[in-house]
UniProtKB/TrEMBL annotation:
Provenance organism: Hymenobacter daecheongensis DSM 21074
Annotated signal sequence range: 1-22
Keywords from the UniProt entry: Signal
Protein name, per record: DUF2490 domain-containing protein
InterPro entries xref list: DUF2490
Lineage of source species: Bacteria, Pseudomonadati, Bacteroidota, Cytophagia, Cytophagales
Length: 260
């Protein structure tokens, strides 16, 4: 049980986010607050979806500067493969001048494929995503960017063999953000957290997320860039509520993945 988790943890240490921790001056910790409603697919009803709201602050639970609203429609090809079409609105502001309105508003469309693997107690998720992003900058300019993302996420239930009712679990992921027009590596996210699944409907999770921004595309002089530190640690608090329509006595296992 421990060998695959140890291998995964070692692989994460090799990712670009790990050495970045010692290369930049310390930034104040921020926080991400995430609320998600999911309609998971089943073997009988393969269509599903989600809706999510997220708020981010520059410091822990204060200095709000960012929010996003997004939703998506998914289809389970089988238990291990899911495709999704999603979209959302993302707004970044200056926490010192919220009355002035957002610095920029992004509208995003994405397509993704999720591959899930079940190895004894360890669950591993591979997520591949292609994004199209339209920006509206203050005072009055716009731009378009494309992006590719890959996330490797591992889950380990601690007190049950599966992630089911009353289960404590560990979650670790690393995600790469790729700019297809270069520079190649745009961003890296490393997350380590612990969660609790109360039942088939409700899951809570908290953890540490370190985000490193490696390249920023230059903006014209008239545009105001997003408020985004090169490297920053955050406290993540997330809640997932599933609209469970499965009528069997035991609901199927769903991995407690974060949509962001």
């Amino acid at each position: 049980m421990c060998r695959p988790l140890a291998f995964f943890a070692f692989a994460l240490l090799l990712c670009p986010a790990a050495p970045a921790l010692a290369q930049q001056p310390a930034q104040p910790w921020g926080s991400w607050l995430i609320g998600t409603v999911q309609l998971p697919g089943t073997s009988e009803r393969r269509w599903g979806g989600f809706a999510e709201a997220q708020v981010r602050t520059n410091r822990v639970l204060r200095q709000y500067f960012y929010h996003e609203l997004k939703a998506g429609l998914s289809y389970d090809l089988d238990k291990n493969f899911t495709v999704l079409l999603g979209g959302g609105r993302y707004a970044t502001s200056d926490y010192r001048a919220l009355d002035a309105g957002p610095l920029n508003v992004e509208r995003r469309l994405w397509q993704q494929l999720v591959l899930s693997q079940y190895m004894s107690r360890l669950r591993v998720e591979h997520r591949y995503r292609v994004e199209q992003r339209w920006f509206r900058h203050r005072p009055d300019s716009s731009s378009f960017r494309g992006r590719l993302r890959y996330r490797l996420n591992a889950f380990l239930p601690l007190n049950h063999p599966t992630i089911s009712n009353n289960t404590v679990f560990l979650s670790v992921y690393d995600e790469l953000f790729i700019n297809p027009t270069g520079p190649l590596l745009e961003r890296n996210r490393l997350y380590v957290g612990v969660g609790y699944q109360f039942n088939a409907r409700l899951t809570l999770q908290t953890g540490w997320l370190h985000q490193a921004n490696y390249s920023q595309r230059p903006l014209p002089a008239a545009q105001i860039g997003p408020q985004n530190a090169p490297r920053k640690s955050n406290v993540v608090l997330s809640m997932v509520y599933r609209l469970n329509t499965h009528k069997a006595t035991a609901a199927p296992e769903h991995l407690p993945t974060q949509q962001d």
